[in-house]
Queue: 2 jobs
Job 1
Amino acid sequence: MEFTEILGLVAGTLTSAASVPQIVKTTKQKKAAGISPFMFIVLLTGNALWVYYGFRRSDIPIIATNVVALALDTTMLALKWKYN
Amino acid sequence: MEFTEILGLVAGTLTSAASVPQIVKTTKQKKAAGISPFMFIVLLTGNALWVYYGFRRSDIPIIATNVVALALDTTMLALKWKYN
């Protein structure tokens, strides 16, 4: 794997990991009042378009990062409905 | 501008826009207790690496999106310190 690809995977891991604390906090506190579902739908749409963009560019780091981000966003939306 | 580039810019606009409500809310409520600065530093690092990745790939949508994201993250961190 070449340097640029590793760089992209590290960048993607960091930007995806940054949303994990919010998910952990929501699960622990069983509270999701402060989270706007509209924001997560915007985020989901954006991440889905990035996955499509990644396929058009055959860019593994973009595809991998945004598939993970999609899963995290979907988890967050599910928590929002569960604890709303 | 070809379709793929437009697709990337739209995706980037959505994923960056998704963090704006949090900034507006923090500014209005003048409260930033619930926000972990560690998360924003992880996000900042990730976005900075994505900018570098974008340059290595000469990928305008990735560069543009992550420069905007960097600005939004920095704003959020500044609000965190101001209203902490």
Job 2
Amino acid sequence: MDKSSSQSEFEIIRRYFASSNLSFKRDGIELGIGDDAALIDVPENKHLAMSMDVLVSGIHFPADADPALIANRALAVNLSDLAAMAAQPYCFTLGLVLPDSDEIWLQRFSEGLASLARQYNCPLVGGDTSRGPLSISIQVQGLVDRSQAARRSAASSGDKIYVSGNLGDGAVALLALGLDSHLGDSFSFGVQSLSDQDRQYFSDAFFKPQPQLELADAAGKIFSSCIDISDGLQGDLGHILAASSMAATINIDALPYSMPSQRCMDTENRIVAALFGGDDYQLCFTVPGRDCAELERLARDIGVRVSSIGEIVSGEGVVYLDSDGAPVDFSARAYQHFASIQPAC
Amino acid sequence: MDKSSSQSEFEIIRRYFASSNLSFKRDGIELGIGDDAALIDVPENKHLAMSMDVLVSGIHFPADADPALIANRALAVNLSDLAAMAAQPYCFTLGLVLPDSDEIWLQRFSEGLASLARQYNCPLVGGDTSRGPLSISIQVQGLVDRSQAARRSAASSGDKIYVSGNLGDGAVALLALGLDSHLGDSFSFGVQSLSDQDRQYFSDAFFKPQPQLELADAAGKIFSSCIDISDGLQGDLGHILAASSMAATINIDALPYSMPSQRCMDTENRIVAALFGGDDYQLCFTVPGRDCAELERLARDIGVRVSSIGEIVSGEGVVYLDSDGAPVDFSARAYQHFASIQPAC
């Protein structure tokens, strides 16, 4: 066995994860890596928000991708869940399953984690490593004012429905990176025809999603409900509607797209990608009509695109409206990891 | 694709994990499964303790084992880390990677989790599921009085070293279950000669480790240091010594064994299993001399075996002493997941 695979678990943790660059000190972190459990404090006026995402090699990222980018995505998708609760990052833990202990891979992976952890003042405080097929479990902890957690359950009739950023980039990125898309034949376009610049754009959209923490911090208190739309707008909006016992109308023409996605897809593919594609780490949130001007001002101030795409109404389900206000039918489904339309791994 | 593998992720979570039997309500759990993140409260006089363990099929448990037992072990080994901090269970999250969504497997797995979660009033509050090679990441949260967390770093010269329960059963269980033991040729005995009763005993020791939470709750405040010895006594005691800048003497004759392990092994194998085997979810802790009588009384009251096996001294490293007080040399190593002596998976 070569040197790179003869490192002990303790040595790996010490060299790549217990570094001051990644497991740095932060107020309230009483004890980080190095004991049987981490110990943290939670201020009395705050809830602790916790979310865990598991990323499996070959399914959630290409096995041969840059380890720094894999790390970045693994942490960013978790931070997006905190944003959806209007919680601010506090600390995270890592469960890393590795086929071997490749020094270069570990170094790059650790650097990728450290960079994002530093950016959000969110140190690594513990976890576990093991041999096995490559997968990454991250649990992120956040703090949120007790009265201000943005849940899914309080959307009311008349609230406007907003999304942050652009929709559909995630679905394009999956195709461009050669990962399985659960959309199957319902979504396709000439990946080969992407310009180098656009290809890089979609790669960044995939590996470097921008968790909308700043928006949630600035405006979370006026959201009546909020969700991360990583499973696709239709499915995730459906969770808000179910939790709030409401229905929605969505104006198809109001869905926001990036320039690269407008360049590479026709209208139909763009709508499928936006509504059902998933992998967009954006927020879908509702805002009472009286607060919409304030929301749009706050978003403008921090330079985040928000788009009003529809309205909460009484009833059940979602009605899509075209530019004439006429209903449109869609049969594709929201992203579901175990759905029968998804190819087995 | 058959029906059992066509369930969506949301359906799996709803049917097997969001049940009131497993994701039950508990004071302080403000929000459990069903939003982007769980929300919990932490009383002002408590630290939140967090520990994550990842179990990989074929490495940490036999792939064909009873899913209820796999679930039991996965949660129990995490609870053992809480015991080692003298923290009491609060709630846990689950990252489950599954090759397919087998209903019978999921039902049994969920039942196994629910049983232990109920026993320790420790509900499931969130997590993630994905397709992929079977592995289980659990993060457990616990509460501990701010002044009473049992860390590794405060062992003092003259403190007595104790272990709970019996040593070496975990190493025997690995052999009996056909799992790789990192001890290799340094540990062997006639597995085939185990009686059915003893075989069942070791299977239970493996799948149903008893986290020493009651002992930690009763006596944690008089531990000067504590660690979970799942990586083997020598290695884990070494962590206490390093964190406390101390050395230790261990009396070989004082190591505690179960009757089945005494029946199946000679003395040499027993010592190797006890010191280096790992997979014993017991505590190693230190107690100032003046508190030893109190410790032994508390342990007797709750019916937990504790054994005084040595003493903290100044210096570095561990000296093993035989019954005559003469030093004994051991060359085997503590359990290290990535050590070169461990077969690759």
